[in-house]
Design a protein that fits this description.
The protein is mostly beta strands. 6% of the residues lie in helices and 30% in strands. The relative contact order is 0.09.
Length: 502
C-alpha cells in the first residue's frame, strides 16, 4: 500500500506562505524520496492554492476523502490524476475553482454505483447555487474543424490535433454540481467541457446538475458516452460544436421551469461552425435513447416569460442573465446531428432546423445527413420553428424572414415525414410515463408497461446505429421501466443536491 505524504504544521505553513506570495506558476511539489503516484495532500485536504496557474505534474492519486479545490488546477501534459471512488471535491467559490485537464494529460475519476465521485459547491446545504465554482474541462488531441483552439472556460489551454483515438482518461459514476462560474461576461465554464477529446476516453454515468451554463459541451472530438444526465442547467443540456462526431446513448435532460438563459435554452443545441458552416470535419454526433423533460411538463403554471423565469432560489446574481426556454432539439449552422429513438415532452418548440449564418442545414436534412427518427414529441406549444427566437411554426429558408404562403415550418414538416417514423402527441399523458412532475431517482421518468415507447421493432436499422457501441434495445427514451434492473440512475445519481450534506 502506498504511503501518504504528510507535511508538518511548520512545513505546511511555510509552504503555503511561499505558494501564496509567489507570482510564478505553481505545481504539485513531490518529495523525490517518495514513490511516484503517492497521494499529495496540501494542508490536509486542499487541492490547489487559489491561483489560476496551479499545475499538477507526474502521476498522483487523490485518496477517498473530502477536499477543497481552490483556484484553477491544471493537469498538465504527461500528468495523470487518479481520484478514488467515494471522493468528494468541493469547489471554492471565492477563487472560482476549476479542474482543467490539458492536452496530453489524463484524469481517471472512477467511481462506483455505491460510491460515486462528487464535484460540488463548498457552500452549505440549502445555500448552493449555479456558478458556485467553475467546473471540469478536458482537452484532447482529436480533430476539430477549427484547428488548434483555446478551450471555452480555460484561457490558456489548447485542444485539437489529428489523433481521433486519443485518450484523456475516464470519468465514470461522477456527479458535477452547482458549477459554471462566469469568469468573464457571458463566458461561463460548462459543467463538463470537452475539447477535441478522443474516443480512447471513457465517459459513462456522469450527471451535471445546476450548471450556470451548459451541462455537457463538446467542441470537436470523437469521444463516446453513455448514461449522461443534464439536470436543471442554466442553458443547454447537450451542446455540440466544432466538428464533434461521437456517439451518445441513454441520456436524461431535465429543464428547471424557472431557469433559462438569455441565449434561449434548449435540450439539444448543435452547430458546425458559426463563421464557416461547411467547415470539415462536420459536427455529426449520433444520439440514441434520450429522454427530455421540458419546463412545461414539470409545472402546469409555466409561462415562457421573465415574470415566471426568475431563477427562484437558484438565481446566483452573478451577472448571468435569465431568458426563455426554447426547443427540445435545435440543429443549426451546418450541423449534421442525428437523433434516434428518443422522447421529449413540454417544450415551447419541438424541433428547430435552422439555416442561420448562411448554412444549408435544411438541405442536409433533406439529403439524409441530419436525422430525427423514431422520436416521440408530446405537449409541445408548436412542433417546429425555422428561426431562432421566433416561436413561429412558419417556413424560413434563411432563419430570418418567413414565407407566409407556406403551411408550416420546414422543421415541423421534416418531423412529420412518414419515413422518419416520428410521433406527435398533444399531451404527455399519452406517452404513459410514470410521472414527469416532481419525478425523482425512483424512476419517475420511466414509461409504464403499456406505454407506446416500449416493445418497438426496427429501432436500430439505420446505418449510423450499426456500431457495436449501441445497445440494440426495443424501447425509445432513456429507460425501459422503473425496475431496479432498468433504472440506471439508482444509487449513484442525486436529484436533490441542494439538501445533501457532504
Amino acid at each position: 500500500m502506498k504511503k501518504i505524504v504528510k507535511f508538518s504544521l511548520a512545513i505546511a505553513a511555510l509552504s503555503f506562505a511561499t505558494l501564496f506570495t509567489s507570482c510564478e506558476k505553481e505545481e504539485v511539489k513531490v518529495d523525490p524520496s517518495k514513490e511516484e503516484g503517492e497521494q499529495i495532500v496540501f494542508d490536509g485536504n486542499v487541492i490547489g492554492n487559489g491561483s489560476q496557474e496551479f499545475e499538477i505534474k507526474g502521476t498522483h492519486t487523490i485518496k477517498k476523502g473530502k477536499y477543497l479545490l481552490k483556484g484553477w488546477v491544471y493537469v498538465t501534459e504527461g500528468a495523470i490524476l487518479n481520484i478514488e471512488a467515494g471522493t468528494v471535491i468541493m469547489g471554492d467559490k471565492s477563487t472560482k475553482a476549476a479542474l482543467i485537464v490539458e492536452r496530453g494529460g489524463k484524469i481517471f475519476a472512477k467511481g462506483t454505483v455505491e460510491s460515486p465521485i462528487v464535484f460540488t459547491s463548498n457552500q452549505p446545504a440549502g445555500s448552493r447555487k449555479p456558478g458556485d465554482w467553475g467546473g471540469i474541462v478536458i482537452c484532447g488531441k482529436a480533430a476539430n474543424n477549427k484547428g488548434e483552439m483555446i478551450i471555452e472556460g480555460g484561457p490558456r489551454s489548447k485542444h485539437g490535433g489529428s489523433d481521433d483515438n486519443d485518450s484523456s482518461g475516464e470519468l465514470s459514476y461522477v456527479r458535477i454540481e452547482f458549477c459554471g462560474y462566469p469568469f468573464r461576461t457571458d463566458q461561463e465554464i460548462n459543467g463538463l467541457t470537452m475539447g477535441s477529446v478522443g474516443r480512447g476516453t471513457k465517459i459513462e454515468y456522469v450527471q451535471v446538475s445546476y450548471s450556470n451554463d451548459d451541462a455537457f459541451e463538446w467542441f470537436g472530438g470523437t469521444v463516446n458516452g453513455k448514461y449522461l444526465i443534464a439536470y436543471n442547467t442554466w442553458d443547454d443540456g447537450f451542446d455540440t460544436d466544432a466538428g464533434f462526431r461521437g456517439n451518445i446513448q441513454f441520456g436524461l435532460l431535465v429543464n428547471h421551469p424557472r431557469i433559462a438563459d438569455i441565449s434561449r435554452s434548449n435540450g439539444f443545441e448543435s452547430d458546425n461552425s458559426s463563421d464557416a458552416p461547411s467547415q470539415q470535419p462536420v459536427t455529426a454526433p449520433v444520439f440514441s435513447n434520450i429522454t427530455m423533460i421540458g419546463a412545461a411538463a414539470q409545472d402546469p403554471t409555466f409561462t415562457n416569460t421573465s415574470v415566471y423565469i426568475n431563477g427562484g432560489e437558484y438565481n446566483p446574481d452573478n451577472g448571468s442573465k435569465l431568458g426563455q426556454h426554447q426547443s427540445a432539439v435545435q440543429i443549426r449552422r451546418g450541423s449534421n446531428l442525428s437523433l434516434f429513438n428518443s422522447v421529449a415532452v413540454g417544450y415551447p418548440v419541438g424541433l428547430m432546423i435552422n439555416n442561420d449564418k448562411g448554412s444549408q442545414t435544411q438541405k442536409a436534412a433533406s439529403d439524409g445527413l441530419v436525422n430525427v427518427k423514431n422520436v416521440w414529441f408530446a405537449s409541445m406549444s408548436i412542433t417546429g420553428s425555422d428561426k431562432d427566437g421566433s416561436y413561429k411554426d412558419s417556413l424560413s429558408v434563411n432563419a430570418s424572414t418567413f414565407d407566409k404562403n407556406a403551411p408550416e415550418s420546414f422543421s415541423a414538416s421534416f418531423f412529420k415525414e412518414m419515413a422518419n417514423n416520428n410521433h406527435l402527441f398533444a399531451d404527455a399523458a399519452s406517452l404513459l410515463l410514470k410521472s414527469v412532475t416532481n419525478a425523482s431517482a425512483t424512476g419517475g421518468w420511466a414509461p409504464l408497461a403499456s406505454s407506446p415507447l416500449l416493445n418497438q421493432a426496427n429501432l436500430f436499422t439505420h446505418p449510423k446505429l450499426a456500431e457495436s457501441f449501441f445497445d440494440k434495445v426495443n424501447f425509445a427514451g432513456a429507460f425501459r421501466s422503473d425496475a431496479a434492473s432498468d433504472n440506471w440512475t439508482l444509487k449513484w445519481a442525486n436529484f436533490d443536491p441542494q439538501n445533501t450534506t457532504y
